[in-house]
Amino acid sequence: MKKIRKRNARKFTVYLLLCTIIFMHVSSIFPHTYLHAVPNKPIVDQQQQEDVVIEDETIVTQETVENEQELNEIKSSKNDEEKSDDTLQDPTEEQMKEEVTEESDNEIEETKEENIQEIPTIDEESLEVTEQREEEKTDTVEEEAPIEVLKDFNSFPHLLITEISPNSKGGGTDYYEYFELYNNTTQPLHLNHYSFYYNYTDSDKEIAFQLPAVVMDSKESLVIWYNANDKTLEEFNNNFDTNLSSEQIVELKDSNFPGFANGGNRGIIVRNQLNEQVISAEYASGESDNNGAVIEFKYPQSETTMEKWHTLVEPTPGIINIEQVPNQPVEVPEIVEDTESPIIEHTPVTEVDAFNPITIEAIIKDNIAIPSATLYIKTEEEETYRSYVMSGDNHTYTVDVPGEYIHANISYFIEATDGLNTSKTDSFEVEVQKEEVDYDKVPELLVTELVPDSTNVGSADGYEFIEIYNNTDKPVNFKDYQMQYRYGTDPESDIVWPAVPNDVIIQPKQTLVFWVINGQNDQKTVADFNAIYGSNLVEGKDIVRIYTAGMANSGVRGLIVATNAGRELSIAYYNEVEGIDDTHKDKGIVYKFPVDGSNIMSKLSAGTTNATPGTVEVFQVPSQTVTKEEDTKAPVIQNVTEATEIVQTSDIHLEAIVEDETEVKTVEVFYRTNSQEEYQSKLLEQDYNDRMYHHLIYSPEIIAKEYVEYYFVASDGTNETKSETYRVKIINTLDTSSLRMNVKNGDMISGEYVLKGTSAQDEYNQVDLFIDNELVEEATYQAIEHTAYLAFEVSGVNTYFQNGVTIGDEVIHIFDDWIAQWETITVPVSPNQLMIGDNIMTIRAGNKASPWEGDEGENRDDYNLRNVRLVLSDGTIIRDSQKDNPETVYDMGDDGTDRILENFTFSISNEMASSKAFVWNTTAVPDGEHTITVTDQDETIEAEILVDNTAPVITSSIKDGDEFKGNFTITSDIKDAIAGVKESSVWLDGKEIEVPYSTSSGALESGTHELTIVAEDNIGNKNREVIQFIIVEENPNMPVNTSPNHSVGDPVLRVEVSDPMSDDVDVTFYEGYQYTTNNRENMKAYSNATDMEPPNVQIPTGESIFEAKSIDLTSELDGEYFITDSSTQFPYHRFEVTVNPEVDAEDRVELIWKGNSFQGRKVTMYAWNVQTSKWEAIDDYIAGEEDFELKGYVKVSDFVVDNKINVIIQDEIPASKEEYDYTFVWMSDTQYYSESYPHIYDQQTKWIVDNQENMDIEYVIHTGDLVDEADQEYQWINADNYMKTLDDNNIPYGVLAGNHDVSQKTNDYTAYYNYFGANRFENRPYYGGSYLNNRGHYDLISINGNDFIMVYLGWGIDEEGIAWMNDVLKAYPNRIAILNFHEYLQATGTRHPIGEKLYEEVVVPNKNVVAVLSGHYHESQTLIDEIDDDGDGITDRQVYQMLADYQAGPEGGQGYMRLLHFDQDNNRVMVNTYSPYLDDYNYYDNDVYPGKDEFVIDLDLTLKEKRVATDYFAVNIFTDNKIGQVENVRSGETAEVTWTGLVEGQTYSWYTTVTDKHTGSTTSDIWTFVKGEDDQISNPPIEEEEEDPEVPTNPPKPTEPILPNQPSTNEGVTDNGGDSESTTTNPSQVTNDKEADKDSLMDETNQDNNQIKLPHTATTMYTIMFIGFILMCGGMMWLALLKKRKIQ
After folding, report:
1. How many domains would you assign to the chain?
2. pLDDT at residue 1578 above 70?
3. Most buried among 17, 313, 632, 896, by the most CB within 10 A?
4. Which of 1180, 1213, 1246 represents a domain boundary (last residue)?
5. Where is the composition biased (Pro residues) (predicted)?
6. What does the alpha-carbon distance between residue 869 and residue 1394 come to, in Å, rounded to a whole number?
7. Where are the beta strands (DSSP E) in 699-799?
């Protein structure tokens, strides 16, 4: 039936298609009332319009609509139909479709007859065409164009935007931005019937703004001028050379309008009362310019977006080309007179805190228009109201009144108008609550106004300024103060901005303005400044200059006025509120004094009022000034500099203690060298830690100088003190002799060495070099004598970036420490790297991995560089001739300048190179003493030096090929005849040992061993000896149990022993215990499956005890199994064993399990540790096709309590849901949340908890940088508290340390250990194990049948850590491994060098690794590698390596974190990114950056079946209860003892240790038997009896029992752990054994009643016969016995 229905459906579809085609064809044949218009020539002017002939029957116009709303509904309906059928593009076809489906033929004819009309012409007075535009379009007029398709003019928008001018002529002077509107209707339009929006086309952000209630006549155009700078109409006309009237220009004054962006991607949207778009126009980057070019638009052919007609054309405000608008306006009915006023609904504000901005809100509605609203407000101190335009959006109107205005009680009312009618509210009173002010705590100097964005000069802001205010009753000299510029809120980033001049007096209650001079406005004068702001400032009196690049328009910044000594008086921040831009061109950011006792200025408004430099409002400053007492006491200076003399290559550290009874405002140090006449000076700030003043005189300033003189000057703002002058002597350690060389008596050299001879008086070519009295004539050259120093100053250097200095391909210095203020870096340069002529040295801005240029997209450090010079040893300073201005600052980095390196060329002249040099290859001469001689014109000097190219000589007590048996000692003897031994090390089989090292053939495994000895002498010669030696197979073989049956009398314990070296051995017999599942009184067994592996409790719920059948299956090693399977949990078998009470702490407990599992599964044996109350892994194995054994030893003290030991054997785990089955959350680099945005951190972890159930969040990953500053306790407290949210809700998570957590340079883990060390996690059931106190760790996570191992390794990865990771991964090969590091992928998506090492050494070798997660770099990247694990050329796995770090975004990343959704049904992981703080998915727009924050990982998530199949389990206890000992037993013979004093019917166990005289030792398995009946018959003496030492019946425990050094590795456990001959549990067999063994025991019984005879040996024949005798059955017993007697 289904097939028939489908076939019928297909037939019906074909039928409909054919009908449609026929219908369309018929329609095209009979077009009686429809027009298929013939294209005509575009209408260019009035005459051409009149020449067009129109036939009545070919015109169909739209039915007359009585009102505009009905017309819009019809047009909207038509537009919907146009969108539904892409094939109907022609307007007439749309008409055809509409009328066929909606009207009858009669209605069509009626429409034709009543509505046919002539196309109206365009009024030339309204559409003025300039001659220039006519000339530009002559091509269009002259060429014969196709006839235009006749249009439905009534379908076009009522309002058109014909021109946008976003960028006035001249950079930064956008005084004349405008857009042009055109009324495309037959009636006047009220602009307040529409709402206007400024649109960000690249983000869909919109800002509503209001236009005045203006009426536009039909076909009238208006210029909407954004007159933000209060220019006049005359100035507008002069700018564009126009003559527009005030009726043609509407001034846009709404402060909500931000002004057009010069960079493009902006637009205007107009909507009607129904919030439907009427028209929009937009422009892109590059479509306007600083020359004032504009964008012209023409009406849209469809939809409501203007078409771009021309870009980058001359502005023509008020002039419209006829091609920009339709030939005919839209017919609309006459507007009905509006007599109703708007209705205002408002809840009054009655109370507000002083200086807090208030928002006034009202609901305003009108029956026709979109009203405009105005707030009128005044303070009680004012007589007239000031007005604020209210912004409306969907009837809601709001306005923010700046806080600066809220300083006294206010009254206000709201007025609304629809253009014709006005309504207003009552007047409302608002009580302003004023702060209580402690005027004594208000800062002395206040920052009152900033302008970071101003009118441009060139391409930069030309009139930025800072205004400060003297809040004291005394004049203040600014020379004791300074301005500081702060990046963000971190004081470490402060840059001092010196004022020029700085010796300026600020009168009480007056201001000082600092004008920023940035290089482009250097030529501007204060008169220009005053012209911009309408001020009247005088240079050097109330305005000074600051020479700097200026204030940033984006990002948080601070301006600080501080004393020269470093005390911050007041701080003004801007852009500190996320998402709010405080910077607007020529608008002030206004501040008032702080009232909370702090020094943080209170921001009143930003970007709302014109800047007023030099003027403060009364509410900005306190009504009372700070009173300053008369100060007559000068500061006291104490010089505490320790240095009185210093080596010239060291820095001089000057220190002083300066105190004053009021306040020290300035401390300045003045210093000069002996070669300088003038002193240099530096302002010093007080060090926060020691409260002293410090200054460094860097070594490049004192090289080759004799002394430095210095003194201090201190000021308290009124009084000044000068210290006495001090002197530091400079010590030059270089040889200044008249003739000298670079070697001296006794020097040792090797390899190639550059010999130099230098004369103080003679030229270099008058100097001769001799080696062993032979003149060196060839290959000499002129050279620099001593080390030179590259010196340069830097500021703004960031920690962790590998900034460097290179010469050629060699890195000679890395600087990666934080340097905020200018500091000098000094880099030694070997003279052998310098040559006569040009020497190029390169200073580089590095990334976090390298100073080199690789990884093009990798973020690099951004810092400032200046004063680069090369200082020679004689004090000569060399500069690059093209870069010789020490004040020139080079902006290094990739923050826009893209200067990632800067080359400096230093030219060395012949005069600077005074030495004769020769490269001496010392390997060509014998080791030992050589004479170097140097002569000049009148002097000769020589030196006896030692050449040593021979490495240390190594001898050892071990020789290559030696074979060892027994004890031996490893020694080494290392000697170096000339240079002496510097260091050495000895390694045995890869492990370092201390020599002498004593060992033995018994302690080492048999076979070949490797001894490595490494040594280095004092000049770098190295030697390495590798010696291989052999250890014999020392340990005896496993003894074989040959004991007779123990059915009657005291049992005889007998073993056959052998030794691979045929050594005699000693055999010691000990008591043991063995328990199997057959011992039901001692062992109980259970089966179960749990969610955790291992379980987190000793006895999980749901266990089932082994039944009799299960016990039978597991009691013997017989290939029969008790099996427990699970696909959703971890199956296990638990064995609870009760051991003998006599077992003590000295006894050794062995656990043995044998069985199988599915191939590739890991099975682990755990024992319950009673000390830690945890299951502890004893042994594990990866299952193959064959059965396997788990075996291990445990301590009685740790694993036995109440005589019980618990053991489990467990395999590992796996289910499914809807779109995904469970989720992991991945966080990283949350340091800024801990530092500055703790609420975001809090929201992240709370969101995880809140969504744990509905998103099935099973685990959380954190890849480091929990805090920003490891030494800041509050940041650790924040991180601790918010991660504890996960702890409190039992959500598993793992963390690691990032570089910020451990202070990267020191790798100090102390704070990390305190808060996130292993003790925080050790009791968590998922916590697998720790490496170095959670420096690394792994978690075992199992969800729905998927088993994961999450491995973490924190900052400072080394070989030991990598080895630990590999060991962990090797131990869990069948778990899905996800590796977590802080640094792995770089911002470019390539691996960092350490990431490459981890990839090669960890990722590739471990086949279970599927993903690597990392942070550190501020990016989001994914790198996928395909790995062929088995080398067959086919990819076996894909490894997804991911970087996700959003900290570079606003607010430290705004809370974005990764979500990994695991979909088991489709074997995939869906990755996306989410911010709980913003409730927003994906930091990066997925349309713009596909695959960056949202993608899919293919991963095998199929369920894995788990199994535990037990064949045999036993617990063996090796006690130290000695039974007896036989010494000197030959290899291949037997040893035996008789064990007396045993109880009939009881089970006993025993074992032996076999040792030789050469340290060999072997321990047997445990054998078990049941004691038979006591024997009452005396036996005759045994022939060939050996001397037997007496052994007591119940031997006491020896104090030092002989136990094996190593547990036996041999198998051989049979029934109940022993041979079938020695242990029998069948009662019938016990009876027969009694009779059979009676005679053999008679001799021993009679000879020494109830005493154990001395042990003796027996022949091999006897043993064979005895075994044969035991095996005889029933009636053959007596015959076998007679035969045996005959043989004897």
Report:
1. 12
2. no
3. 313
4. 1213
5. 1592-1601
6. 35
7. 707-715, 720-722, 726-731, 739-741, 748-749, 752-759, 768-771, 774-775, 780-783, 788-795
